[in-house]
């Protein structure tokens, strides 16, 4: 995250190498079926002079024809048709419920996205060298089949390094033990990453668009700019090609031009070099501050490839613990309008990845601890609990526009209409084949929230018009002129175009335009002769002169105008406010209005079948020539409207009851702290060397990773023979930010300390990380008697390797120094050590459990552990205790009721690992920012019994606050 840090790192070698290789070219022609429909929906289809847009609803894996992908400086093309790629980032690994992948991907699609950008997480699949798991929640083949079925293009991003604020930046923790610098062509690392690519590439390859799948591009590495190694970058691409990857290869350059190389030219160059833009940065405590990191205009890195905004900020990590709602504000609709639209017109980019569309959860030990906690909500348009927000509405307004308006996929800079008020800025692009213009209108000072009006002198392809415009508050508009809109000709509009469609059998067009509430709008359409204008709703003035029909209105509610005659097929024009625009949905060619979400709509004959979500009973209006409507499998009574649409009312959900959490039983654990505990099967810790660039303070090496314990807690037991004059136990531990460790001597609790960190590569290595001095109570040790020191160290996750320096991600976890010091002489006592951590769960994966006694013996699992469990949630002594309960849910099958576990205010410093049916769904830390923890359906049995097990790690005498199951929403959904 700390982008600034790298100023000095950036004088990295620009590799001198052969000339550019990324010329516009045919990437593949595996089998070309130019007339076959591609698997994508909502993709623009402009090539030369597009007049129509098609939206195939879906295609089925295995039956789709393969496609041919090419590109030039304007855009990607699929089977000769230009594609404006508008994708949102989704991390399957942050949603451990494949059933919910469909839910989220359908929501992403319904927002107007025609693609998703997917990281693939090496460490998530590989607990040990040579061992890979692609089943269950790791079944990425299933994920890619789903994207095919839903008609979403995929940008596949398998790293090997992905960053993403996930443990190790996506590296498996075992890589910490592999000699040689990561993200270089060092032989040790090369063997390791080739192993990963050897597993993931064939899966991606078989899902390429060129083989009838969904993958349209392949991203090599991630923001690879510091300590670069061109041979490595080249080899990643060679591995991909050798595995049959034939789609264009891309790269996402970090942040700004100071990060070089761009991988646009020279050895290691990719075909489509892209840029990541995070103009708002990550200070969610100040959501009104704009553009900390600049204008956010995606730079064109290659003259031969489309400009690509590979990661454009669509949310933020909560770096300073303001809460994700503040991050959503920081990157809210006003920011999205001004920055995304400015970028669209200024850069002419036609490939976008918005990071994140849905953030998800750092369940298990997925988090990289410096930047994130359990929730990775990200302030995204879709919340962690899968709810749609105001940002979603804005994405939909922009997404439907960019994926409807085909000429946008090929534009050059054009003369902008002159603005009578210089404080209102204009900028334009035009399609060289169709002449269609796209004009950006915003405040010259993009930070101001002023209300300004101006008159534009707009030279459209159909003549010059003086038109008034108004920019109210932080806003920007992209206005269109000279556009063949279905069977109509849109000369210009000062309203923004949401979408348009040719309803059903093609006998009329329906278009939705929108603008700021209370602001006037003008729309001009061309006709051969005077058409008939019928205002069905609202107040709209019209005049006709010299072939131009001019409509004047103020954006208020939803006005409806029917235009017939004039030498064209009829047009239903819907003119609304932004809020009204957000009520529309588009599925294929079907335009609908109402409900909380339309997942799909299929028209067959006179039957319209809709899959929709409703939080309450509500109207649903379909702009299609249908006579019957089915919503979520139930026939809905309908009536035709004067707009020629069909209006029905769909039922909402039933009220649901969620049980209170009672019947808790509690048991203390940590037998490891007792001197007599049998640790004979533990691993002896006696290594004297380590691969880590950070060396231990004392020997033996006690780094958990060096003994194969990579995630969660580790226990140490150190034995020594006491002299009786021991004064203190002195420890150093690295836990990752926010971690703690606890110490017992001969079973007596000595206390806890905060785990430390080594510093980043640009800071000096910390000589005293996570120090803890624990005075030894007198009388606890006796001369000549054996003593046992027990230390429990938490591992909060592994650092990333953002600056490719190896020091960060190879930073150890566990004890880095341990001594028992005697009084007087200050000498240290020799200690022999044993270590014990957790093992990878065969189903839930390597990050699920650590080495707590309860985790090692299955107290987190649904099956009932034996032993002496006391009823209730009593006050807890420092150390580790577990509380368990069961609850039963009986939620209706056709309702979606996301639940969270809410922690009330307790007492004492404590942290709680939350296990739901054996799955570690997060860690609550008292005093931390997160109190609500998502319980994802799938892991949560919504119709059946559930087991909740809490491992409470208390630093003081502790009581837990009230624990409640909290419904976040209640929607009727397709069953
Ligand atoms: C980018 C990186 C992503 C993610 C993002 C911030 O630099 O490529 O993986 O870390 O920043 O959330």
From TrEMBL:
<keyword id="KW-0326">Glycosidase</keyword>
<dbReference type="Pfam" id="PF01301">
    <property type="entry name" value="Glyco_hydro_35"/>
</dbReference>
<dbReference type="Pfam" id="PF13363">
    <property type="entry name" value="BetaGal_dom3"/>
</dbReference>
<comment type="similarity">
    <text>Belongs to the glycosyl hydrolase 35 family.</text>
</comment>
<feature type="domain" description="Beta-galactosidase">
    <location>
        <begin position="406"/>
        <end position="584"/>
    </location>
</feature>
<keyword id="KW-0378">Hydrolase</keyword>
<dbReference type="GO" id="GO:0005975">
    <property type="term" value="P:carbohydrate metabolic process"/>
</dbReference>
<dbReference type="InterPro" id="IPR036833">
    <property type="entry name" value="BetaGal_dom3_sf"/>
</dbReference>
<dbReference type="Pfam" id="PF13364">
    <property type="entry name" value="BetaGal_ABD2"/>
</dbReference>
<feature type="region of interest" description="Disordered">
    <location>
        <begin position="29"/>
        <end position="67"/>
    </location>
</feature>
<protein>
    <recommendedName>
        <fullName>beta-galactosidase</fullName>
        <ecNumber>3.2.1.23</ecNumber>
    </recommendedName>
</protein>
<dbReference type="InterPro" id="IPR008979">
    <property type="entry name" value="Galactose-bd-like_sf"/>
</dbReference>
<dbReference type="InterPro" id="IPR018954">
    <property type="entry name" value="Betagal_dom2"/>
</dbReference>
<dbReference type="InterPro" id="IPR037110">
    <property type="entry name" value="Betagal_dom2_sf"/>
</dbReference>
<dbReference type="InterPro" id="IPR001944">
    <property type="entry name" value="Glycoside_Hdrlase_35"/>
</dbReference>
<keyword id="KW-0732">Signal</keyword>
<feature type="signal peptide">
    <location>
        <begin position="1"/>
        <end position="24"/>
    </location>
</feature>
<dbReference type="InterPro" id="IPR025300">
    <property type="entry name" value="BetaGal_jelly_roll_dom"/>
</dbReference>
<dbReference type="InterPro" id="IPR025972">
    <property type="entry name" value="BetaGal_dom3"/>
</dbReference>
<keyword id="KW-0325">Glycoprotein</keyword>
<feature type="region of interest" description="Disordered">
    <location>
        <begin position="754"/>
        <end position="774"/>
    </location>
</feature>
<dbReference type="InterPro" id="IPR031330">
    <property type="entry name" value="Gly_Hdrlase_35_cat"/>
</dbReference>
<dbReference type="GO" id="GO:0004565">
    <property type="term" value="F:beta-galactosidase activity"/>
</dbReference>
<dbReference type="InterPro" id="IPR017853">
    <property type="entry name" value="GH"/>
</dbReference>
<dbReference type="Pfam" id="PF10435">
    <property type="entry name" value="BetaGal_dom2"/>
</dbReference>
């Amino acid at each position: 995250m700390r982008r600034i840090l790298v100023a000095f790192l950036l004088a990295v070698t620009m590799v001198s190498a052969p000339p550019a290789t990324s010329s516009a070219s045919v990437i593949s022609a595996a089998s070309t079926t130019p007339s076959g429909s591609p698997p994508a929906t909502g993709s623009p289809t402009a090539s030369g002079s597009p007049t129509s847009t098609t939206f195939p609803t879906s295609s089925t894996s295995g039956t789709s024809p393969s496609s041919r992908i090419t590109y030039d400086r304007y855009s990607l093309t699929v089977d000769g048709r230009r594609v404006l790629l508008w994708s949102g980032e989704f991390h399957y690994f942050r949603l451990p419920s494949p059933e919910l992948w469909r839910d989220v991907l359908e929501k992403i699609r319904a927002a107007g996205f025609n693609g998703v950008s997917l990281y693939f997480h090496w460490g998530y699949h590989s607990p040990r060298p040579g061992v890979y798991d692609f089943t269950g929640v790791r079944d990425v083949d299933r994920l890619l089949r789903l994207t095919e079925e839903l008609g979403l293009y995929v940008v596949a991003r398998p790293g090997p390094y992905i960053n993403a604020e996930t443990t190790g930046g996506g590296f498996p923790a075992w890589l910490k033990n592999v000699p040689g610098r990561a993200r270089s062509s060092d032989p040790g690392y090369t063997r390791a990453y080739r192993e990963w690519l050897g597993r993931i590439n064939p899966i991606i390859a078989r899902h390429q668009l060129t083989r009838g799948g969904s993958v349209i591009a392949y991203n090599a590495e991630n923001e690879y700019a510091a300590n670069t190694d061109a041979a490595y970058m080249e080899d990643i691409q060679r591995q991909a090609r050798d595995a049959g990857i034939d789609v264009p290869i891309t790269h996402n350059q970090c942040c700004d031009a100071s990060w070089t190389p761009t991988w646009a030219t020279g050895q290691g160059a990719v075909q489509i070099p892209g840029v990541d833009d995070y103009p708002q940065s990550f200070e969610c405590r100040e959501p009104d501050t704009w553009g900390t990191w600049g204008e956010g205009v995606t730079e064109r890195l290659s003259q031969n490839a489309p400009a690509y905004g590979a990661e454009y900020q669509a949310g933020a990590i909560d770096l300073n613990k303001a809460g994700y709602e503040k991050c959503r504000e920081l990157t809210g609709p006003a920011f999205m309008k001004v920055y995304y639209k400015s970028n669209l017109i200024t850069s002419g980019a036609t490939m976008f990845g918005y990071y994140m569309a849905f953030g998800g959860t750092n369940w298990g030990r997925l988090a990289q601890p410096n930047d994130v906690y359990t929730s990775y909500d990200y302030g995204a348009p879709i919340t962690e609990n899968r709810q749609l927000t105001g940002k979603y509405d804005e994405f939909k307004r922009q997404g439907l526009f960019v994926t409807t308006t085909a000429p946008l996929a090929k534009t050059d800079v054009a003369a902008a209409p002159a603005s009578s008020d210089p404080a209102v800025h204009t900028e334009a692009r035009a399609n060289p084949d169709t002449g269609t213009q796209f004009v950006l209108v915003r405040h010259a000072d993009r930070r101001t929230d002023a209300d300004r009006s101006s008159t534009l002198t707009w030279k459209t392809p159909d003549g010059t018009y003086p038109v008034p415009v108004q920019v109210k508050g932080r806003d920007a508009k992209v206005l269109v002129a000279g556009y063949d809109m279905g069977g109509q000709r849109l000369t210009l509009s000062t309203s923004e175009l949401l979408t348009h469609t040719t309803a059903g059998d093609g006998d009329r067009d329906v278009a939705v335009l929108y603008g700021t509430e209370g602001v006037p709008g003008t729309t001009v359409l061309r006709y051969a002769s005077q058409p008939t204008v019928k205002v069905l709703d609202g107040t709209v003035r019209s005049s006709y002169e010299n072939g131009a029909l001019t409509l004047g209105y103020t954006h208020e509610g939803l006005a409806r105008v029917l235009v017939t005659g004039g030498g064209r097929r009829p047009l239903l024009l819907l003119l609304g406010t932004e809020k009204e625009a957000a009520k529309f949905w588009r599925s294929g060619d079907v335009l609908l209005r109402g409900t909380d979400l339309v997942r799909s709509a299929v028209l067959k004959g006179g039957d319209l079948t809709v899959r929709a979500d409703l939080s309450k009973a509500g109207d649903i209006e379909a702009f299609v020539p249908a006579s019957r409507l089915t919503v979520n499998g139930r026939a809905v009574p309908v009536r035709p409207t004067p707009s020629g649409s069909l209006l029905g009312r769909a039922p909402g959900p039933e009220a649901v009851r969620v049980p209170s959490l009672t019947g808790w039983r509690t048991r203390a654990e940590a037998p490891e702290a007792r001197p007599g505990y049998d640790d004979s099967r533990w691993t002896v810790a006696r290594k004297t060397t380590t691969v880590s660039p950070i060396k231990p303070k004392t020997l033996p090496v006690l780094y958990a990773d060096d003994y194969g314990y990579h995630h969660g807690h580790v226990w140490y037991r150190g034995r020594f023979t006491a002299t009786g004059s021991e004064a203190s136990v002195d420890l150093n531990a690295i836990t990752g930010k926010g971690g703690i460790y606890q110490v017992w001597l001969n079973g007596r609790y000595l206390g806890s300390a905060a785990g430390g960190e080594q510093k980043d590569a640009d800071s000096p290595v910390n000589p005293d990380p996570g120090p803890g001095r624990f005075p030894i109570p007198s009388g606890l040790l006796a001369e000549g008697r054996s003593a046992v020191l027990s230390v429990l160290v938490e591992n909060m996750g592994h650092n990333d390797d953002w600056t490719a320096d190896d020091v960060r991600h190879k930073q150890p976890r566990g004890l880095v120094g341990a001594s028992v010091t005697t009084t007087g002489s200050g000498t240290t006592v020799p200690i022999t050590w044993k270590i014990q951590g957790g093992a990878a769960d065969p189903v839930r994966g390597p990050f699920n459990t650590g080495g707590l006694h309860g985790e090692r013996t299955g107290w987190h699992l649904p099956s009932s552990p034996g032993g002496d469990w006391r009823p209730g949630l009593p006050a807890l002594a420092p150390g580790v205790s577990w509380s368990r309960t069961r609850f039963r849910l009986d939620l209706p099958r056709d309702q979606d009721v996301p639940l969270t576990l809410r922690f009330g205010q307790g007492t004492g410093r404590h942290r709680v690992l939350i296990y739901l049916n054996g799955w570690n769904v997060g860690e609550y830390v008292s005093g931390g920012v997160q109190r609500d923890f998502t319980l994802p359906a799938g892991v949560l049995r919504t119709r059946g019994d559930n087991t909740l097990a809490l491992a409470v790690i208390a630093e003081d005498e502790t009581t837990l606050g009230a624990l409640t199951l909290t419904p976040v929403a209640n929607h009727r959904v397709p069953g």
